[in-house]
């Protein structure tokens, strides 16, 4: 993107720093750090969260799994007294499904069982750039830009073949953006490239978390209780033992036959 202001520091004094926050609930953390124009990151325990985190290992030189599976833009408080976000997501209710760019209350992320890790990225943007982000985001809401699972698969393919990352997504669809592609698209509209050399539709949440654009990261960190870890290990051992017993039983039946 040709823009003389692209990637310029949002603040002359801002540097890349991470502030680790402990002892807060998701709600307390977001109510303290969410502001219009800031970026949110989340990680979870669902199968799709783990699949995305595993695919992001190609971002890391050591091959470590990614920490983030979703990204979104904080919009700010509205007349209903709630803080809202703009995001491209799969929002599934019992009789209603929304796949695409949408507005949601920040309370969506209060569920600590579903959103186990959270971060807020503050780029210290001036009001005019925040306005561009929100305007472009709302335009995509109004135009009903879709969430594309095809493009997500295309991004995962590009992860394994770095030469494809600079090119258009192999499975690109018109008027479609998944979560991190949406955030990257908005910031480029505002003259800021969060992941230089990576096409909008090949951008992952992990790319955004590792951006070199000057910013502050507020990271909510929780300690997993020792008892929970022990319980998880015990369950795993029981599952493995059960599988071994089944294999042995099959072998015994084969020998008898």
Percent range for helical residues?
25-40%
Architecture of the largest domain, CATH level 2? Alpha-Beta Complex
Secondary structure class reads alpha+beta
Let me know the number of strands. 7
| Overall average pLDDT | 79
Strand order of the largest sheet: 1-7-6-2-3-4-5
Could you name the CATH homologous superfamily of the largest domain?
endopeptidase domain like (from Nostoc punctiforme)
What would you call the shape?
Answer: elongated
The CATH class name of the largest domain reads Alpha Beta
Would you tell me which CATH topology of the largest domain applies?
endopeptidase fold (from Nostoc punctiforme)
Strand fraction:
15-25%
Indicate the low-confidence ranges by residue numbers: 1-5, 225-230
Description of the structure:
With 257 residues, the protein is α+β, with helices and mostly antiparallel strands. It folds into two domains: 207 residues, endopeptidase domain like (from Nostoc punctiforme) (endopeptidase fold (from Nostoc punctiforme)), CATH 3.90.1720.10; 32 residues. Helix content is 36%, strand content 21%. The protein contains seven helices and seven strands, in the order βαβαββββααααβα. The chain has a seven-stranded mixed sheet with strand order 1-7-6-2-3-4-5, with helices on both faces. Strand 4 and strand 5 form a beta hairpin. Helix 3 packs across helix 5. It is elongated and about 80 Å long.
